[in-house]
Amino acid sequence: MIFDYIEIFILTFCEQLITKEEGLVLYEDMILGRFFEDMCAQMYYRGKMFGFVHLYNGQEAVSTGFIKFLKKEDYVVSTYRDHVHALSKGVPAREVMSELFGKATGCCRGQGGSMHMFSKQHNLLGGFAFIGEGIPVATGAAFSSKYRREVLKEPGADEVTLAFFGDGTCNNGQFYECLNMAALWKLPIVFVVENNLWAIGMSHLRATSDPQIWKKGPAFGMPGIHVDGMDVLKVREVAKEAIERARRGEGPTLVECETYRFRGHSLADPDELRDPESVSSLAAEKAHYAGRDPITALKKYLFDNKLASEQELKAIDKKIEELLDEAVEFADESPLPPRSQLLENVFADPKGFGIGPDGKYRCEDPKFTQGTAHV
Amino acid sequence: MATLFQGVGAVTPFSASSSLDSNKLLLPSRKSLSISDSRGSIFVYRSDALNLKAATRKQDLLIPNAVATKGETSTSAKSGHELLLFEALREGLEEEMERDPRVCVMGEDVGHYGGSYKVTKGLAEKYGDLRVLDTPIAENSFTGMGIGAAMTGLRPIVEGMNMGFLLLAFNQISNNCGMLHYTSGGQFTIPIVIRGPGGVGRQLGAEHSQRLESYFQSIPGIQMVACSTPYNAKGLMKAAIRSENPVILFEHVLLYNLKERIPDEEYVLSLEEAEMVRPGEHVTILTYSRMRYHVMQAAKTLVNKGYDPEVIDIRSLKPFDLYTIGCSVKKTHRVLIVEECMRTGGIGASLTAAITENFHDYLDAPIVCLSSQDVPTPYAGTLEEWTVVQPAQIVSAVEQLCQ
Questions:
Q1: A285 found inside a domain
Q2: Which cofactors does the annotated protein need, by name (chain A) (predicted)?
Q3: A366 touches chain B (CB under 8 A)
Q4: What is the pLDDT of residues B342-378, one digit of tens each?
Q5: Is residue A3, in this structure, part of any structural domain at all?
Q6: What mean pLDDT comes out for the span B33-37?
Q7: B272 catalytic, yes or no?
Q8: Fewer CB within a 10 Å sphere, N or C end of chain A?
Q9: β-bridge partners, B224
Q10: Whole domain around residue A49: which residue ranges?
């Protein structure tokens, strides 16, 4: 009996949730996400990028917590708030930045933009503008993985897919349809809900009959977990379990991460509803979450557990700043896509445009081919 | 292979005993990947699929001139095998599934039930429940799932139980299927085939009798084909599966029981080419799917009246085969389009615009387009009949055009 107590005592005292290396990796990834998004805002207001840009400030713990557990072959499917998912998955910051600037060196050759980040090399399946649209695609990637294992009998085909989406999406049909199919066929997928309580200006509580999203998992026969999305270590713990569960072939999991976005829905959103001057309760909400900044929390943990020193973290900060400066410079100097790129990539096989095997249009349509180079 | 040229066998929707010899009358000297000679009968594509062994073995057996010409009907009359259109689709599907293990089917009732039109009958027993996947009734999501699977290396075929149900999947088809190759900068290909029966049936009611080709027409990044005979159904099915582009294959509810003799050898048709059904001199009649049979019925009457119509089954709804059509227009100078699609914004409207833009100088008369009425298909048999174009209307249109 006494030995049990000693064992527990030793374990709790010595048990560290992460090692120093892991801690620094997590810190670097979150800092990269935060600084990148801040740089995006700067560049947007300087007129270097246009359109809808959705920033991830405040939610870094979810992206880092989950994606840093994945192998390179695992798939990630995201929404329009996808810059940080791309960075966490390994897409170089310079490629993401030049994609945002609309240059030809972007990860999608400038054809996708902020909301459509794709990378075949890093298995990032996008970036979707409509909410819920990526969830079936993620289900398909998970199906592919199961197919390869069971039909094609490929050894080691155990890729897991992570589908990230928000609280607003949890009222959308595609979400429920995919929860059903994933549970039915035990697909290796984890549904990660980034519940930041707001869908542009619609509060989650005003839009949902039962706001506890994690409860919807058991309704379809999968575990539903609620986790504090502002604490990267807690997210990591849950992520580990969910991803390993999927890898073993036991099926999907629904994880609801309670998180918050510090900025507005997009850079074009005046964010009046959460303005500190206006409604007092929402101002309190914003202040409350600002006090739970995931980066500050991780810093505190690293210092308290003597895993890193101030200088080490500052060195990482500086390294990331330099990386981003270089990324912006690269994006600035990259060429804009030429006109000849317009019709490329519409079809994988150019016969879809009526182009014959000799590379010319089978029937010269003057209106169609005017001014464009041969595909 | 269909050998007997019977010209204009009157074909009723539910059975066709005479076969329409489409391919032997194709225009010669077309630049294509065909291995045949100038009679241009069979188009064989060396696909870039991984497993070519089976294909090359079969290609050794291929006979370039399997299609008989007009005089040689007797010797090759018994080669090939007879089957119905849905069986031809199944044969094409099965051959492709055999050839490439990444080909899979998903849809409602495709597995254990065998498909509501029996196109996938027997495949689930042979290939298993995962390769022939019975999905729950969630068109948007399983189409999206097919797209995700296609992006990650599989070659899925999504079956819509009725083309109308694919309206529910329109989000995924328009946003993801057509777009993702482009927005990803060419990184991901989506070799998906979406197929299903559409068109006006026998009193199936408005929602099951939709003519939807035009709805999908404008989506950039997809190809559309419509099959009309067992021969081209099998060929187009195989071509669609082998294509790297997303393809929507339109079948017609009333054509599933058409019978025809098709070759035993493997063949793949071209997705972008039209089919010359009957060469002629006076007027070009462009049609596709079920209307082909109404046109051929009208052509019989027209021939008796002394006209010589040239009938082309356009097959490829997107992109149009403007080469074949153009050659024909340059010959006859008159065009009649007969289609089942809606009048407003239909395939015919689009085709009229394309022909006018490109071949305006060659036209002696304005293009006449006969399409079905802009009404939701009524239930009553008589009303339904008047919704679609009937042979009598085609005859009078040609007469008027050729005045």
A1: yes
A2: thiamine diphosphate
A3: yes
A4: 889 899 999 999 999 989 999 999 999 999 999 999 9
A5: no
A6: 39
A7: no
A8: N
A9: B248, B318
A10: 20-342
The rounded distance, in Å, linking the Cα atoms of B340 and B387 is 9
User: What distance in Å separates the CA atoms of residue B402 and residue B365, rounded to the nearest whole number?
Assistant: 9
* CB proximity under 8 Å: B 41-100 to A: none
CA neighbor of B265 nearest in space, from B81, B71, B16: B81
Cis ω before B319 (30° cut-off from 0): yes
- Work out whether strand A253-258 and strand A189-195 pair parallel, antiparallel, or are unpaired: parallel
- The first and second tokens of residue B86, run together, are 């849905």
The single-letter code of the amino acid at B370 is L
B145 touches chain A (CB under 8 A): yes
8 Å CB contact of B272 and A133: no
Quick check: is B81 catalytic?
no
In a domain, A10, yes or no: no
| pLDDT tens by residue, A145-162 | 999 999 999 988 899 999
Structure tokens at B371: 């399409």
Burial class for B26, CB neighbours closer than 10 Å (0-12, 13-18, 19+)? buried
CATH fold label, B275-402: Rossmann fold (3.40.50)
Q: What is the pLDDT of residues A41-89, one digit of tens each?
A: 999 999 989 989 999 999 999 999 999 999 999 999 999 999 999 999 9
- Number of structural domains in chain A: 1
The answer to whether the CB of A341 falls within 8 A of the CB of A104 is yes
pTM for this prediction? 0.84
Contact yes or no for B148 and A140 at CB 8 A: yes
Compute the nearest-CA separation of A275 from chain B (Å).
Answer: 35
Place of tokens 């679609």: B388
Task: Spell out the domain ranges in chain B.
Answer: 81-263, 275-402
Q: What is the mean pLDDT of residues B163-176?
A: 92
- Fold of the domain built from segment(s) B81-263: Rossmann fold (3.40.50)
